[in-house]
Amino acid sequence: MLHVTNLQKTYDTGDEALRGVTTSVEGSETVAMIGPSGAGKSTFIRCVNRLTEPSGGEIDLDGTELTALDDDDLRAARRDIGMIFQEYNLIERLTVMENVLSGRLGYVSAWQAFRRSFPPADIERAYGILEQVGLDEMADKRVDELSGGQRQRVGIARAVIQEPKILLVDEPTSSLDPETSDTVMRLLTDIAADRSIPVLINIHEVNLALEHADRIVGLHDGELVFEGTPDDLDEAA
Ligand code: ADP
Ligand code: ADP
């Protein structure tokens, strides 16, 4: 479970990207963070995985206060955070299976997966996850042969094999057509429910959030302006 309290981020440029945001994401639920470009959505995710240093506030992930960690502890904590990126961040010349297995190493050192051998239990687990994302028959294909939707599913599988305590997903559908976007969103909500992993998705397409999320958090100008179910948002609009 992720609890964020009064999160603030002011960049060196003076941009106040987050002005005290408090929210949480709990087991098995999919939360969509919506808001126009510049609202602070990716700053929020970058603060949670500490790619950006927050200016204030607390970030509690299953009892660990992430803002207080030294570098070693931060590296360990990041293994508990599964990241899924807009541009996939896969290793093009490696196969689907190798990319997924690289998740076992933590995303920071993913490139080390090349030529490394993995225990059979990891490979078995990887097949199981590839089956869930519908790519088990493509395990030996290089990712540069895949479509955008297939790549995004490899990215999801790579994050899931980490067995993270949360999945953070930054604009997963912005390079995908509507039908593929739908499939990817459904997959993420299924993973949250089946594996009891809370999922936080930054998404600017409100209709996808309405259709797929359990809960919606709305940001505007670095402030939380809405928090509720898709039905609540429909009524507010
Ligand atoms: P969103 O993801 O909702 O589009 P961002 O978190 O990217 O919003 O941006 C929020 C605000 O912070 C914007 O005003 C943006 O220009 C600013 N911002 C984002 N990243 C940086 C950065 N690295 N340095 C300075 N300002 C930034
Ligand atoms: P997104 O909204 O998808 O996060 P952005 O265009 O806001 O995309 O950001 C792309 C990159 O540019 C990010 O790495 C962000 O940190 C950086 N960035 C965004 N706004 C600013 C800014 N005002 N000054 C410096 N860097 C920025």
TrEMBL record:
Looking up PROSITE patterns in the UniProt record yields:
ABC_TRANSPORTER_1 (PS00211), ABC_TRANSPORTER_2 (PS50893)
SMART domains in the record: AAA (SM00382)
Q: Which organism is it from?
A: Halonotius pteroides
Q: What is this protein called?
A: Phosphonate ABC transporter ATP-binding protein
- What is the residue range of the signal peptide feature? none
Q: What is its EC number?
A: 3.6.3.28
Does Plastid show up as a keyword for this record?
no
Entry GO CC: membrane
**Record carries keyword Heme:** no
The EC category is hydrolase
**Alphabetically ordered keywords of this record:** ATP-binding, Cell membrane, Hydrolase, Membrane, Nucleotide-binding, Translocase, Transport
Could you tell me which InterPro entries the record lists for this protein?
AAA+_ATPase (IPR003593), ABC_transporter-like_ATP-bd (IPR003439), ABC_transporter-like_CS (IPR017871), ABC_transpr_PhnC (IPR012693), MetN_ABC_transporter-like (IPR050086), P-loop_NTPase (IPR027417)
**Example of a GO MF term:** ATP hydrolysis activity
Annotated ABC transporter domain ranges read 2-237
